[in-house]
Fold this sequence. Notes:
two-stranded parallel sheet; about 65% helix; about 0% strand; globular
Amino acid sequence: MILVPFIYFLLLTVYWWIKHRAMDVCVYMSGLYALVSLFAIIIVYGNMLGEGGILYDEIGLTLGIIPTLLYCAVLTGSILPFSMLYGKDLKNVYVSMSWLPLVLGCMLIAVSILNLYLVADSTLEILQGDLSSVRSDHYAGILSPAEMKAQSMSAPLRYFYFILNTSTLLALPLFFYSICFEHRPWWYNGLLFFASLSVPIKEMQVADRTEIVFFAMMFIYCLMFFYKFLSKKVKVIFMIMGIPVVAAALIYIVAVSQARFDEREGGAGAGAVQYTGQSYLNFCYFWENANPDLISAEREFPLIHHFIYHIDSNPERRVARSGQQGFFISVFPSFIGDLMLDLSPIGMIVWVICYVLLCYQIIQSPHREELSLGEVLAIFALAVVPIFGIFYYKYFSYKYTIMFMLVGLVYVLSKIKFVYK
């Protein structure tokens, strides 16, 4: 069974590549699942089970045909709407209100500047210290220096930052839209790009690697989506500026990995393999061992659970749920593994069907030549689910629901067309 997901997603990737005659977003998505499935094979045959977040050990590995087929089928259904996006056909992204992207962009830039104020005087010191201890303090619930500094801000600024900092994710597609269609000044585009890095910069305070990996994955998505609209000059700038940025990110990731995982058998390299390849394995483990009667939907409906039931998907909650299930649930089982654990297998299928219908509603039809800015942002936000879903369900915080509400507002406003008399 261990070979089935890799072979399946590899063939699916090749099929869409040939059909679309391009390396576009659906090829990218299926290619990611082929890659993580390959790492699952390396884990099994490299005797890396039993640590690094992998729930199976060497003795208890059982990969059934039902969870394997379900894993392949449900993930394919999640990617399928994005196969209607033919990059070569898209000719324009429009917005009826010219001020809308500028207002949204300036708001996100303001949040990122506030974020810089909070992290500027402590990040370098943190990076020069013991990164393993920094991460341990985070798991223990100890506030980072930036979080403590934020407590001293006035209430309006504090709420503005805490609620909207997550939404700076939208600055990434806005940055690409600006350089491709608006051609605004270089300093504005630079600030937009800086705004898109707000969350990764903040998470350096707790020696986190995940947000940098997430940013890189969504940057590649945007690059594929907008590539045909990028001028040669911009492509050259990307290449020149990309080298030091990628090098700095890799140095940081390697440093954090060595600090946290060097003591493990196989070192940081084995940890990286286990980190990348565990989703299929843990999905099968969830299928075999999870109690489907323990329904807990705070990750799928975080805004409702936060404000009505006062429940959040935080470390304490995950530890409590792990005790109920009999195994540690805060691992990487792919996003459908999280959904299956929270909602039962039937609930997972229903959730994915609703997600797919929403994607079809936004994308509407294949070979579209024109999209509104709101549609571009909505497609980007929806694409996060299967792309970063190779690890887990990303939108587990109520702050992401705020971001979706913001996307919904832009979606409606960008499609309104005014007639002046």
